Amino acid sequence: xxxxxxxxxxxxxxxxxxxxxxxxxxxxxxxxxxxxxxxxxxxxxxxxxxxxxxxxxxxxxxxxxxxxxxxxxxxxxxxxxxxxxxxxxxxxxxxxxxxxxxxxxxxxxxxxxxxxxxxxxxxxxxxxxxxxxxxxxxxxxxxxxxxxxxxxxxxxxxxxxxxxxxxxxxxxxxxxxxxxxxxxxxxxxxxxxxxxxxxxxxxxxxxxxxxxxxxxxxxxxxxxxxxxxxxxxxxxxxxxxxxxxxxxxxxxxxxxxxxxxxxxxxxxxxxxxxxxxxxxxxxxxxxxxxxxxxxxxxxxxxxxxx
Length: 306
Ligand code: PSU
Ligand code: MN
Known about the structure:
The protein is of the alpha/beta class. Helix content is about 50%, strand content about 15%.
């Protein structure tokens, strides 16, 4: 038996038919420094609620998979050090052995599926790292998107990743990548990666209909919605390119490998931009939470009127 607990607000929302939006916890434990991580976790939950949905932040705490966290749990995670970063490979082991860990995109998708939640908003997904032809570093997030039926709203893939290779893997795996409201693929801190996205949609309703169509056609897997960062928060690509190159080189110099790579790069870029990367990160996560709530609402309409 899976030890799974819904927060009271999540259980009430599901009973009432209120739309739900899953949120991840690795962004709190490994993606941002304290105390901004706690402020953002609370703010993003408030953003989802302000747009008519109920948030469910996922985490494994002492062997129980939590679907929705209370404020004390959010705060404990935000302050904790050495919390495990859980992906598909280690989530079951963590639950089985009574461990505590934060959920990545892949693990949050698994938690959402178990809880019956179909929409999940985050900042950025993992992808194919630069130099993957040598390291084989490809995030499990991409393979999760291929098999778990959750629509994930992110601001595209970070420029720390090899975006063309990330798109190739997603195409091979049959994952629709939908740019929201523009033709170009967004690149996290920048609105454009300089290449076209495979698909474009201009409304939450279209995205919800496409999600429902995959379900009706029994095509496994989810969708990736790439929502461009708001204009006012954007950092342009030219500014970031040397910073990313530096951070990537530093990771190499320090022999950072495996699941430590992404958190290391995020922290290094935060330092090298004097915190500007974090300000942008916060703006885009909030923007994704709002769109996630709209998609979840539309999905409820599409499903019930079918
Ligand atoms: N990208 C970000 N912020 C993040 C992450 C990725 O911009 O916090 C986190 C997410 O939890 C994502 C994980 O699922 O890193 C990917 O890690 P890896 O590359 O080791 O699969
Ligand atoms: Mn990796």
